[in-house]
Write a structure and sequence with these properties.
- The complex is a heterodimer of chains A (about 290) and B (about 450).
- Chain A is about 50% helix and about 15% strand.
- By secondary structure, chain A is of the alpha/beta class.
- The longest helix of chain A has 16 residues, at about 215-230.
- Chain B is α/β, with parallel strands linked by helices.
- Chain B folds into 4 domains: about 1-80; about 100-190, no CATH class; about 210-235 and about 275-445, von Willebrand factor, type A domain (Rossmann fold); about 240-270, no CATH class.
- Chain B is about 50% helix and about 5% strand.
- In chain B, helix 17 (about 420-425) links the parallel strand 5 and strand 6.
- In chain B, helix 6 crosses helix 8.
- The two termini of chain B are about 30 Å apart.
- Classes of the chains: A alpha/beta (about 290), B alpha/beta (about 450).
- The interface between A and B is medium-sized, with 31 and 32 residues.
Chain lengths: ~290, ~450
């Protein structure tokens, strides 16, 4: 993707089904131009991971994904020596001298590449997605610093491995803990929030093309109403889309109280939330029985 | 322009945003790519490289407008440039505009969200409104102009020809008012040739919305960080070899190095211990303002730790672990505790001495060196016996003891506060009435240096 302007980036993202807003498009553009990692924060389900996927599709680059979790270590994130293969090599070596074997078993043939290593060593440029970085501990963040600032990894036995091509790096965080300053300093920062009404409508209609405009508008309005409540888990964009598809399957023409109660579980997923939503939002919708009678 | 940008960064630093040299270099690099002419791009490029959190972004937005607006004006005043000197205002003076036409144009611009057009129209509106009619007070003029134009939020009355007009969003209207305000201010500066004094941002503008529910989310964040820290802490001090289990698989693998003879034993990694936490929370009247915060801390703690027992106290102590475990809704919890806690006897005054005695007799057998005790309270005994030695016994039995005090350090030991008597038994005593303090506490517990205030 060799676009020369923000608008072109935005357009190419739209072509692969991701409707970026201005800041998101600008940051994607800068990430490619400056070769800096992007840190994307925001509530769950606003399309943080999706942005990375869209970037990969739009640029035709392969997506390398590292899903973070508590206890993730460098053996699983960067590289690991392939013990079994090394043992086999020693046993099969026969009369070869120790010097040869030693050099041999610590060569790249015996290295198991994990996602970060893959992204660095890949001959083709890739998009590297480090998902939910806030789930790991601070020590892991520190380990990432070398990779993020210089795009290189140091392996004691092999030396430094530098990236041959510049990967686009996207880090996502649900803001469940404050990330370290050192990490933030190396990244461009993007806060993704729930989209505006119009944009969410576009997104819904892009993913559920059969939905009529009036229904889509009503749906998004209801979703926004639900989000405004103080819920444990407010509905995400993915859930709006799911709901739109459900309504299509149900053949609903309009969102009235009956369809809402039927399909509410698609967008609200906590028992206490369901009660609250039924109480606050459900009553605002037209009651089909009354309107018919 | 570079100097302007540096000045802007300097001002951001003054408001507590950490802007490093690398951020500034990034900002310049980014501006090299996007071009300086488009205001929205310029702003976003700066924001993405400089403001690295939601809070920073808020401060950034507030400062950005003020700084760049002011600096442009200051330059104009310096050079003695006024718009009138350069060929008159954008539209002819004296000539009255058709207000309806103008109003329609503004509606269109608002609906389209076109910032540039809105700015131009705001200037037109001011010109049309006429300087003579202005009251000289910017806020009043903004509202007058808005009313003259017949702009209101919500559904719009139909046009004279009966056509429908799209409703105006409240936010969009506020956006237009902002343009009006800025243009009026510009006007004022031009006439008086001075700048109004630059004020530091009011604390009110910067603070996050502080309704209990909003706070709750922040408290939860800080606590979940604390959980991670407490869970791994103390791991390294425990005996390594004692009571460990041999990991047969790893021992066998290690033995391959020595030709199948298991020379070195490999052990199973020890699981980090489960933290056992006891929280004592003062809910008396002297800490009323803080107790909502404390209760939300308790609430968050219960979400994160399974082995947690919580107590509330005023004159006597009462265990409320059950309440927190069975009820998810914060409001209900708060209400239940105040009604069923049974902690206030008659006076409603805290009696710390008695609380320690009760805690010691009821709970002390269960305390062991692995447990952590956290006290949330102001240490105001209302003149009663503090029983600091009893508190000392508790501190001895428990592994660690922390005190979070909702009063600023300045007030400790003034009046009936006996913080000093207790403080010497604590592993740490902290002032704590905002989530920032809470995070600071978490950091200290985690062994990091305390964050700067």
């Amino acid at each position: 993707m060799a676009e020369g302007s923000v608008a072109e980036v935005k357009q190419s993202l739209a072509q692969v089904g991701y409707l970026a807003d201005e800041p998101a498009a600008l940051v994607s553009f800068l990430a490619q131009k400056l070769g800096k990692p992007v840190l994307v924060e925001g509530p769950a389900g606003v399309g943080k991971t999706e942005l990375a996927k869209a970037l990969s599709r739009a640029s035709g680059r392969e997506l390398v994904r590292l899903q973070c979790y508590e206890g993730l270590d460098e053996a699983k994130a960067m590289y690991e020596w392939n013990y079994r293969k090394q043992l086999l090599r020693i046993q099969a070596g026969g009369e070869a001298g120790w010097e040869d074997v030693q050099d041999d078993i610590f060569s790249s043939d015996f290295l198991l590449e994990r996602p970060l290593m893959q992204a660095i060593a890949s001959p083709e440029p890739v998009v590297l997605l480090i998902d939910e970085i806030d789930k790991t501990d601070q020590e892991f963040e520190a380990m990432l610093l070398e990779l993020l600032s210089d795009f290189q990894i140091t392996i004691p036995e092999l030396g430094r491995i530098e990236a041959t091509t510049m990967p686009i790096v996207v880090l996502t965080s649900n803001d469940s803990r404050e990330l370290t300053e050192a990490l933030k300093r190396r990244c461009l920062y993007l806060w993704l929030d729930y989209p505006e009404l119009e944009r969410e409508m576009e997104i819904v209609r892009l993913h559920a093309p059969d939905i009529s405009e009036t229904l889509a508008r009503k749906l998004v309005e209801v979703i926004r109403m639900v989000r405004a409540l103080d819920l444990k888990k407010p509905p995400s964009i993915a859930e709006s889309i799911d709901w739109a598809r459900t309504l299509l399957l149900l053949g609903a023409e309009d969102i009235d109280r009956k369809t809402f109660t039927q399909s509410m579980s698609i967008i609200v997923k906590h028992r206490t939330d369901i009660d609250l939503v039924a109480e606050r939002v459900g009553v605002k919708l037209a009651d089909p029985l009354r309107t018919e009678g | 322009m570079a100097a302007k940008l540096l000045g802007f960064c300097e001002e951001l630093r003054g408001e507590g945003v950490a802007v490093g040299t690398s951020e500034i270099l990034d900002a310049f690099a980014a501006l090299g790519e996007v071009g300086w002419t488009s205001r929205a791009d310029f702003r976003e490029a700066l924001a993405t490289t400089i403001a690295k959190s939601q809070d920073d972004r808020r401060v950034f937005e507030l400062l950005f407008d003020r700084y760049f607006f002011r600096s442009a004006e200051a330059e104009a005043v310096q050079r003695g440039v006024t718009e009138h000197a350069e060929g008159g205002p954008p539209a002819g003076d004296g000539e009255r505009f058709d207000m309806d036409e103008l109003s329609d144009a503004i509606r269109e611009a608002i609906a389209a969200g076109d910032e540039d057009a809105m700015r131009d129209l705001a200037r037109l509106a001011i010109a049309a409104f006429g300087r003579a009619e202005g009251s000289g007070v910017v806020g009043v003029d903004v509202q007058r102009i808005r009313r003259t134009l017949g702009l209101t939020a919500g559904a719009q009355p139909p046009t004279e020809e009966g056509g429908e007009r799209p409703p105006i969003d409240r936010d969009q209207l506020t956006g237009f008012e902002r343009h009006l305000r800025r243009e009026l201010e510009r006007d004022l500066i031009e006439r008086t040739e001075t700048l109004p004094p630059s004020r530091p941002l009011a604390e009110l503008d910067r603070a996050l919305p502080t309704s209990p529910t909003q706070d709750l989310a922040a408290v939860h964040r800080a606590v979940s960080q604390m959980k991670r820290r407490l869970a791994t802490l103390g791991h390294e001090q425990r005996g390594r070899k004692k009571g460990q289990h041999v990991d047969v698989r790893r021992t066998m693998r290690a033995s391959l190095e020595t030709g199948g003879v298991p020379l070195r034993l490999r052990y199973r990694p020890k699981r980090p211990r489960r933290p056992e936490i006891y929280v004592l929370c003062d809910v008396s009247t002297s800490v009323t303002s803080a107790s909502v915060f404390f209760l939300s801390v308790l609430h968050a703690l219960h979400d994160s730790f399974r082995k947690l027992r919580s107590f509330v106290f005023i004159e006597r102590i009462s265990e409320v672990t059950d309440v927190f475990e069975h009820e998810r809704d914060f409001a209900v919890i708060a209400q239940k505790i105040s009604s069923e806690g049974g902690v206030a006897d008659v006076s409603g005054y805290t009696d710390y001495g008695r609380v320690w005695l009760e805690f010691l007799t009821e709970i002390s057998e269960e305390l062991d060196p692995r447990s952590t005790v956290i006290v949330l309270g102001d240490a105001r005994t209302n003149g009663r016996e503090p029983h600091a030695e009893v508190f000392g016994q508790i501190a001895e039995k428990a592994g660690r003891l922390f005190w979070l005090n909702p009063e600023p350090k300045l007030y400790w030991n003034y009046g009936d506060s006996v913080m000093a008597a207790y403080e010497r038994y604590c592993d740490g005593a902290f002032e704590c009435w905002t989530t920032k303090h809470l995070e600071n506490f978490v950091n200290v517990v985690a062994g990091a240096a305390p964050a700067a205030e």
